[in-house]
Each structure stands twice: as structure tokens, then as C-alpha cells.
Amino acid sequence: MEMKWLEDLLALVHNGSFSAAAADRHVTQPALSRRIRALEQWVGVPLVNRAVYPVQLTPYGQEFMGLARQTVASMQAMRADLRQASGENGQRVRVLALHTLASRTVPELIAPLMRNEPSLTVEIVPSVQGVESHFDELDGGGAQLLVGYSQLRPETRTKDYERRIVAHDALVPVASRAFVDEDGRCDLQRSREVPLLRYSPFTFSAALLDRVFTQIGTRLLPRAESPLAETLKALCLQGLGVAWLPRSSVADELVTGVLRIVGAECFHVPVEVCAWRRFDLNHRRAVHLFEALPSLAAAAEPSQQTSHSKTSAPKNRGKTRGMQ
Predict the structure, then answer these.
(1) Strand locations in the chain (E)
(2) What is the tally of structural domains in the chain?
(3) Measuring CA to CA, how many Å separate 297 from each of 99, 105, 136?
(4) Of 86, 108, 136, which residue constitutes the final position of a domain?
């Protein structure tokens, strides 16, 4: 059970409709409805009578409401007291990041600042949550900063956040040397299908790649699935298939030739790495960190182009069809 489910129920009762409650909670109406149903499933009984307007609580919901109010109030008070006691509000900066970015990109971004400011304490929290959950963390104070791809945007409440581009990257199709021929092409002769190491359907990266997969003439056969790029990379290194991985996460392997970029450049998916914060963020160190985040785009792009030129296959002189 998640605290936001209780807060959603309180907002629904206060506003009397799902649409008004969704606007109050800065989420879409379908998302709010799903979370209310998730709460009802957790409790085991219907809490809301959806057949009337304004929305009313069922007898079970009325009985549950008192506990919901008490729990939310107690947890919010406890969190405020503990943070105040530990000094977290003024010293520690909590950065929520997509799992792949948390392993390399975010540490590279903040390392210079941490060296220059020894008193700065940063907690990096990797996450594979949905888009709305990421921004819920910022709204609820669970994190001060969010680092993700520019396509990771809330469906509503965009006016509440300041966004800054901090780096550029791309999801590129890669395979191990055992999987490609000397020219860096997929060895399609041994099979009419290309084994695909893919992201789990609910992940952000999977949504980005849908358009690319429809363009590929060669049939992609799902061989393994994971929400984590690191897991797909490990399988790719074992020669089990092709995976679309952030170029930054395989930079070393591309230089050494352990992994090679396969397929035409039109199958690469450029992404901007961005940082977000709420405009009304009242956290001096977090605001300072956000404003000081260096832009890696100018420095990273030339090195990525060099790496690509060394490892990618020669361009076809004829028409590109499917994967090379």
C-alpha cells in the first residue's frame, strides 16, 4: 500500500469528482482512478460509490476514511520531525534518477561539485517507476531533483517544474563480436530472425523503441526481457542477441571492440538527459546543485562520434533494408 493512495482518497472525498481530484493531485484522471482501485484491492472492499455524483464513500469507505486521515497526518508529521532532527532538509540532497542514469551519468555530473564542496551530501536513488511516480516524489518531497530523459514528461503540471538539459545520449543497437561478422553486420545467414534483448513493456525505454522496431524489416525475436539496461548489457556480452543500450553505458566496450554497433544509424534513438526540480523547491543545497549541474552535451558528443566512427559498420552504398 502506498501513501499516495490514501492522499488520493482524501482528495477525491474533498473534491467530489475524479476529474477535480485528479487536477488537485496533478495527475491524469485515469491514473487517479487506477490508484483508487489499487487501494480498494489492497483493503479488499469497495470504498467509493462511482454510480452517484458527487462521488460518495461506501459504508466501508466511511469507516476507512478516519484511519486514512489519521495515517496521512501522522506520517507527514513524523517525516517532518525526523528530517528536521537529522538536518536532512538543509544538508542532504536526494536525487531520483532512471536506473541506467544513476549508475554512471549522475555520478559523473555531480562528482566535480562534490569534490569542490566536501560538505555536500547526495543520495542517488535509482528508479524504474512510472512517469507519474517520478514526479510524485518531487511533489511529495521524497526527492529534490529528478534526472531522466527529456521525453520523460508529466502529462500535466509541466508549469510546476524547471527543466535543464545536462547531457546528450542515444539508445544504439549493439551486439558482441561473437554475434556479428567482420564488418560489424548481424550474421543473418545463420537465422532468419534476430534475437532481441528487450526492455520490459512498462519501461520508459521500451516506449522509446517501439517506433524503431516497426521500421526494421528483419524480424526481431524476443529472447530475453528486463527493465534494466545493465541486465540486457550482461546478456549482450554473452553473445545472446542485440540490445538497444545507452551509448554512454557501453562506451568502454565499444572502444575495445567487445561490443559493436549494428544496424543503420536511422535505428539510433537520440535522447536528452535532463534534470528537473520544482519551481517552489525550498532547499538551498538542492537548488544550488541543480543550477550548477554542468552540461555534458558539448563534451560528450565529440567523443561519442569518435567512438561511433571506430566501431560502426561501413555505410551501405545502396538502399538500407532492415538491419545491416
Answers:
(1) 48-49, 56-57, 92-98, 121-127, 145-149, 161-176, 193-199, 219-226, 242-246, 259-261, 269-278
(2) 2
(3) 20, 12, 28
(4) 86
CATH number at residue 218: 3.40.190.290
**pLDDT tens sequence across 262-319:** 877 888 899 888 999 988 888 888 998 998 886 543 444 444 443 444 433 333 333 3
Task: Say yes or no: 15 and 114 in one domain.
Answer: no
> Beta strands 161-176 and 269-278: pairing type?
antiparallel
Q: How far apart are CA 105 and CA 148, in angstroms?
A: 10
What CATH number did the domain enclosing 72 receive?
A: 1.10.10.10
pLDDT at 43 over 80: yes
Domain that holds residue 51: 3-86
Looking at the structure, do residues 149 and 100 belong to the same domain, yes or no? yes
Predicted model pTM: 0.65
CA 5/CA 206 separation, integer angstroms: 27
- 60 and 130 inside one domain: no
Cell of 23: 487536477
Q: What is the largest CA-CA distance in the chain?
A: 72
Convert the pLDDT of each residue in 110-134 to its tens digit. 888 888 888 888 999 888 666 667 7
Q: Where are the alpha helices (DSSP H) in 99-203?
A: 99-103, 105-116, 131-140
Query: End of a domain among 69, 86, 103?
Result: 86
Cell 482524501, residue?
10
Backbone angles phi, psi at 203, to 5 degrees: -80, 160
Q: What is the sign, positive or negative, of the torsion defined by CA atoms of 201, 203, 209, 210?
A: positive
